[in-house]
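Internal tracking record. Fields below are filled automatically when a chain is submitted to the structure queue. Please do not edit lines marked as system-generated. If the sequence contains nonstandard residues, flag them in the REMARKS field before resubmitting.
Queue: standard
Priority: normal
Entity type: single polypeptide chain
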Amino acid sequence: MPIRRLNPSKSQNFTLMAQQAKDQRDMLAAKYGGQSLQTRGTGYNLIVNQGLDTGYYGTIAIGTPPMSYDVILDTGSSDLWLTSSTCGSSCGTSPTYNPATSSSFQNLSTAFEIQYGSGAVAGYIAEETVQMAGFSVEKQGFGVVNALSSDFNQNPVSGIMGLAWAPLSSTKQTPFWQTLASGGSWDSALFGVQLTRYGNASDATQNEPGGVIDMGYTNSSLYTGSIEYHDLVGTPQYWEIDMNTLTVQGKSIDIAGVSTVIIDTGTTNIAGPATAVASIYAQIPGSQLGTGQYEGYYIYPCSTTVNVEFNFGGNSWSMSPADFTHTQVSSTECIGAFFVTTLGQGGPSWVIGDAFLKNVYSVFKYSPASVGFAALSETAIAQNGIKAAVPSPTIGAVTAATNTGTASNTASNTASIGRPLSLLCFWLASASIAFLFL
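SYSTEM-GENERATED OUTPUT FOLLOWS
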């Protein structure tokens, strides 16, 4: 369910905001409770920032002939699924996938169901030709969803592209990215992510340029200095690493020694243990714990500038004060981006989402399995808040037919053996949804 950053001048529907906040908290708790290749050296997919940094989506093409669909880019899950043309009204108004239009569709006749915090998606597992960023995987396993107990998809999003590891997959299929990385299709077995910020832009609209996912390489024009890598904890499932320290307003927060964190592009905010989150807001005079549907969240004075730094065993990484503010609920009161969640036995201590990831260039590496961070370049920072057109969907040199549904905004995919040197026009053609705690 969406949870959006809203400004009272744009919306006074605080009841709806409270419900969305509750949905986000509940869905996160449930989420962490579980081929033939066309070789192209590198590729990238322009993504969309939807709902004032609520989340981020990109575009895939599927089938023969290829049809484009917008999907949440989620490093916190591992399943690819699309809503089916047989789903009906429960799947909302987003474009749906029709197997009858594709000659490469194969039904594996295996049912699946994925449980989420406020419901489930269900359907059957199939194989298809899937394209993204100029890469193509034949017989890619994915879920065809024909029943949703809740409306997970906000138009124009038709599904989810899981970017975590195969052991986490509910459909028991190897994720698209992992097939490419393990099969030697990429120049480098990794992908990088850069996300934009529009939450503090007064003239921002629902869909704005969202950044990029770089496949098979790191885009040196988007970061400065070196990339600091951190090995994953245990057998790769989530992108889970150690966090050494967390400081707020210059004071170290007690995180009970080294805590593990999941790096999750499909999560809007940052979830942590109750005692640590309470300690964070204790550094902000006037903060108070939310009640009712805001249970687990904290309200604090909007006039306070909050400085946060994370350390994962190397450099300290700052989070912009603008990203600490999730939403404003009155002329003086704001909801903070850190909230309390109980992820259950065996779950991670923390889930770090887009509120932090907007501040770094993130790299997800196949071997050795690790997550890397680098400081954003001036080129990347300049994309925040910029007014730009949303591109039409293309899959490398192949143009996919567009599924428009009732929406006109989609993302773009581009691929090349070598990334174009000039990024001058990059921010003119980018534009989302990662707000689900899946």
